[in-house]
# Entry
Amino acid sequence: MRKGKRSKRSRGSRRRQRASLILALALTAGLTAVVPAGADDPAYAFRNPRLPVTERVNDLLGRLTLDEKISLLHQYEPAIPRLGIQSFRTGTEALHGVAWLGRATVFPQAIGLASTWDPALIQQVGSAVGDEARGFQQERPDGWGLNLWAPVVNLLRDPRWGRNEEGYSEDPYLTGSISTAYGEGLTGGDPDHLKTAPTLKHYLANNNEVNRTTTSSDLRPRVQHEYDEAAFRPAVEADATTGVMASYNLVNGRPDTVNPDLDDVVRTWTSRDLLNVTDAFAPGNLTGDQQYYPTLAEGDAAALKAGIDSFTDNNGDSAPTTTAVKSALATGLLKESDVDTAVSHILAVRVRLGEFDPNGGTYGSIDQSVINSPAHQKLAREAAAESAVLLKNKDGVLPLKTSAKNVTVVGPLADTLYTDWYSGTLPYAVTPADGIAAKLGASVGSSEGVDRIALKDTATGKYVTAGASQAGGALKESTETGVAAQFDAFDWGSGIVTLRSAANGKYVGYNWSNFVNDQVQPNGWYVQQQFELEQQDDGTYLLRYAGYETTESWWSNPVYLGPTGPDGTLGLVEKSGAAHYSKDVVRSGVGEAVAAVRGKDTAVVVVGSMPAINGREAHDRTDMGLAPAQEALVKAVRAANPKTVVIVENSYPTTLGTLQKEVPALLWTTHAGQETGNALADVLYGDTNPAGRLTQTWYRSASDLPSILDYDIIKSDRTYQYFKGRPLYPFGYGLSYTTFRYGAPKRVDGGYEVAVTNTGKRAGDEVVQLYTHQRASRDKQPLKQLKAYTRVSLKPGETKTVRLKVRPSDLAHWDVTRSKWVVESGTYDVLVGASSSDIRSRTSWTVRGETIPPRDLTKVTRAENFDDYSPGSVRLVDEKKARGTAVGATADGAWLKFADTELGSGASKFSARVAGSSGTVEVRLGSPTGPLVGTARTGGTASPYDYTTVTAALTGAAKGRTGVYLVLSGGVRLSTFTLR
# Structure
């Protein structure tokens, strides 16, 4: 944590004092008589770009009424005509391109961008996205704004997270470097003259969708400082962001919407003003499902005091927020100075965006010509190609030869591109089949490999039919047996299928009334194009509607389909009334694909996910494998044509079943945007030598993972840093069409130098990765930890010496005994290689640091600073609603370990602050069942936030140097203690 920076609250106070002084001087000098009538006149100090940002903010803040200031606290900030101020909105989505505003350049998903391990390229992408956001501002469409909600820096700790596609990596160092690069591109690199104002999402420890507004992420201090905070800090320190968004979840029992670290921690990382926002509807959660505050006024007041500046609530209706803030002011929950502080943060960002500068400031002239420009299209292709990861290439199957033009591309993703929730609208789509055909200059065969089926009601003999026009029509049962009664059934795994009408090529979806074939692709918040075909004992099928809203607690409607009208229109019915259908396979997808690839020079199979279905916001993945039908397709194609190349196009690690062993070549890509097909062709045919690297561990099975709600990566051996098993593919993994040799790492000022030689026959990029491992420590340390990396381009036979920066301070970890960063003296392994498991050269590094002394429990010790604990019976909880963390026991016998404690000649008294239920706190030595030296008893407190002091005399055995264990009764909360 940086030192010497005064708090934002302190600066806000000084700013208000200066504003008052300026106004007083103006009145004294009679300047009010010459204040221009035109609100856009540069004589207003806030419109003078030559003045410092702080002076401009002070001037504008001093001109606003209290009501005007309060109005700016909501996401939709209204215009203030008397000052010539236009409306402003926080929150334009820009995760991998500008989203939700229309056609714009769509770059690879965030996980794909990070897979390039190329910060320079990512900065270019960020700059392009920033330009396009500026381009959209010229027309100010609905949803416009230069405050961009990107990037997402939540760590990909668990590959089952539904929003895995939005993040960068399971590693905080890599995440920090990629997010900083993207943010610098978005901002333009000058913190005082912003191209856009990016916001990091979502602070903090947000990596599960199940019950995401009510689950608490337990972060003991080491995990919080070394892991979760470490991903957010680099971009903030580099001024590559202008704020953070608080996440929906709780951390240690406290909603992140009121997490005091927004002020106490995040704002200490920079001297710039940060504009912190809530996630959508999160303020209402405080009084809703979180039940943390009884009124919105109390919740909003707490959020402002914690460090929130802008409330994203009730869509465009600001009245509930402004009413709550006014109520909080009237009842003393807030002071006007609290409002001023938040508004000053908002205004500082708006000033830096050039909003009040002549002609919009530095970037005001950027127009719509930049949107999907040829330069951005070229960049999108480059980013998509660089992000692809070659997983397997047995016997040099790849690259393919363009002379072998007899190619067939098959699979459910062979000739389509899907977009995700935070994607922009594709301006065009180059599918894998398109890209390969363009590369070969010849047509290629193609088959989606999905069954075309007809569903016949066994009771009536009628078929389910769809509308034939492009607008589609309500599904109904009829005697028609032609194309209107045929559907392509796409299997996405976990029993979910989508049905695309053969009559018009549109997907069937529910519109809250009927089922209509009118959707280009599955989409929407509830993804109402999902179905299950439930086979019955008699061989018939029930057609079950499985849109995501059916998983909501408020859904009470039936979910099965059956005719509900006199014309046979299908509607929702109870299971007992569901129609029983026979499933007639009109055309076998596997059969068609096998026929298409037989005898061809090459078969390319493109399988993967549908981003709206296989895990997305609000829905974690329940299955880490490919859909069974897709796996069967690959096996059948491979059997028909041994020259099979498989492309896996999805947004997360996949277990891949037996395919990893059976197919000769595997290439992974994310849903990589409009240029996906061209980029894949560039890689498959060797115009681009693949150098993408995995940013997550690919596990062999979900059994390798603990609960998705377990955030303690140290205790549960998560991520490559602590995982002791054998992964399918390790962190940092990726193959090339050439080979590289590494020299021995040599210590130089500020890091290490390593000579890398291209020993193959093709030019290529290598991602050189430096890891460290601390051989001995007081505390459990990572098996290895990424500290530096660089992507280097080498011609055949060429050698380059790369420098990898790593300083002794980079080896620090969080010392819980003294609540500070510490570099321990000792020997550290320096490991340089092509992945976390492919170490090519190594050396040792003797570092002079310090030795962590024995614990001194005579000082007040926070219970959260334990060394170990009993899993399943210990939770970290909110000590008070405003701040502080305590330890809560969820079962009798819950224990905390405080290792290497020096009790000296003897401790005679134990004292602790406890709350919650009645019970005991036992002091034991050596183990949770070791010698009992004292027991403190509590009668309980009226509230879990009311703490009382309990004491116990200790026996003479409490002496020497040993591990101290505190064993708690269920329901007891422990905040601090001492042994004296």
Notes: Confidence is low (pLDDT under 50) at residues 1-38. The CA atoms of residues 598 and 640 lie 6 Å apart. The longest helix spans residues 8-28. The first strand starts at residue 76 and ends at 77.
